[in-house]
Amino acid sequence: MRNQLNLLRYVEGDSPIHRLNPRAKVGALVAMMAVFSFDASWLAVALLWVVVLGGAKLAGLPRSVAPRPPRILLITMAITVALGWIAGGDPYGLGGVILQLRLFGFTLGLLGMSMVLGWTTPTADLPVAAAWLLTPLRAIRVPVDDIAAGLAIAVRALPLVAEEFSTVISMNRFRSKQHKDLVVRGMDITATATVASVRRAREIGEAVQARGGAPTAAQIAQTPSCPNRWGVAEVGLAVATVGAIAAVTAF
Amino acid sequence: MALLELRGVRVAHAAGTPWEQPALDRIDLRIEAGNRVIIVGGNGSGKSTLMSVLSGLIVPTEGSCELDHIPVSEQPDRVALLLQNTRLQLTRPTVSEELEDMAADASLIPGVVAKLGLGPLLNRRIDELSGGQQRRVGLATAIIRRADLMLLDEPMAGLDAKSVAGLLSALEVVRHDAIVVVVTHDFETTEPLLHQGNVGRVIEITDGAITEREPT
Predict the structure, then answer these.
(1) Residue A130 pLDDT level (bands cut at 50, 70, 90)
(2) How far apart are the C-alpha atoms of A184 and A187, rounded to whole Å?
(3) CA nearest neighbour of B210 among B63, B57, B18
(4) Which residues from chain A sit within 8 angstroms of residue B101, using beta carbons?
(5) Band of pLDDT at residue A224, cut at 50, 70 and 90
(6) Residue A34 phi/psi, 5° resolution?
């Protein structure tokens, strides 16, 4: 349904974006997040949206992949903009509003970029790409193997956990209306969803153990889609592109 | 007297997106008060989606699902649902709190508790219960809602023979004029339910389409 947030759901295709090395896509996303976090100017926001919309167009993604914004998000944005208006600031007392709008443009742009990445990259390739990119951190004793295994499991578990959350929330409609304490109800729902998620995580963990334990990053990296010189070149090119964009926005 | 009607119900998951997946195809069904209906189907046949439509959790992509000519989704107070993964519907900390929260009338609780043998569990935390015990608590909450439409998703799955007998016996206390629909892949275990209401019906679902067959 259009109102679902279809993150990490692959859309079949053979576009240049689909064929682009997952490591390059993940690397570019991380680099953009890092760079634009330091300089989220209007120009940076505009460039970010050019990348998102251009990427989506190049990937041949239909408009229907984009979810309708949830009402709660729109309400939250409206309240935040109103607070910004109350705060005032230059120019013409709209400084707060402009700042909020720039923040929304930046945040939604990054979300859009993550979505394009998820729609054009097979889910199983994402942890592999992340593990490959994290490999240099071994030098400073970052537990790359554990992070990679955790990511791989999280990506697999995410749809199941999301479905269970959704079920817990939707079952609330069958409760008697005489108990309307929203705080208690919210706590109950959160606790139940958490227990269900923990149980799911335990089951997945047991399944991993039964198969001989979590794969190491080295094992993941041995998969056929992993590093070669072209991969390094693609990642380098992606990060260099982001660097160039950053340079343009900064100067 | 409740009347449940499905007219031309078609459901496609993620409709209108590249991930669209048809689940139910033009289903017409009429279930009257007091009917006991078993819906049988294999994995991926669409039975869970049909259950979600009957309970109002999913609004059909096309067609309508109405209870007494009003969409079921607008009348959650008239519906009781038992999920296969019962833990997801038991949100209160203890069994007694769960029963009190769900009861249409608190005076119904002692009778149902006795029938289902829940007395020793009343002060236990939901998380301490086994899967079978959680199923019994879930069934108790469904019964004490005194709903016009009672929907049970794989109620016997994973239960031993004694628990199955207990569950079937407990279903005898459901209002005789209520509609009870059970979705299962295991017809034999659930079959005794057909004799509890005024009419027992068996519906087979395959690839999102239904056919009615004669009860054995």
Answers:
(1) confident
(2) 5
(3) B63
(4) 175-176, 179
(5) very low
(6) -65, -50
| Spatial separation of the C-alpha atoms in residues A62 and A15, rounded to whole Å | 13
Minimum distance, in Å, between the CA of residue A1 and any CA atom of chain B: 4
Q: How many CA atoms lie less than 13 Å away from A223 in the CB half-sphere?
A: 14
Nearest-angstrom CA–CA distance, B5 and B29: 6
Q: How far is B147 from chain A (nearest CA, A)?
A: 10
Report how many Cβ contacts below 8 Å link chain A to chain B.
73
pLDDT tens-digit readout, B48-93: 899 999 999 999 999 999 999 999 999 999 999 999 889 999 988 8
Domains recognised in chain B with CATH numbers? 3-213 (3.40.50.300)
Contact A64 B18 (CB under 8 A): yes
Place of tokens 């984009």: A66
Mean pLDDT value of segment B145-163? 86
Beta bridge partners of B67: B4, B70
Dihedral, B83, B101, B3, B178 alpha carbons, nearest 10: 80
Tokens of B66: 């109405």
Q: Which pLDDT tens digit goes with each residue over B110-146?
A: 988 988 889 999 999 998 898 888 988 999 999 998 8
B159-168: long-range pairs with CB below 8 Å, 24+: B159/B132, B159/B135, B160/B132, B163/B132, B163/B135, B163/B136, B164/B189, B166/B116, B166/B117, B166/B136, B167/B135, B167/B136, B167/B139, B168/B192, B168/B193
Residues 54-93 of A with CB under 8 A from B: 62, 64-65
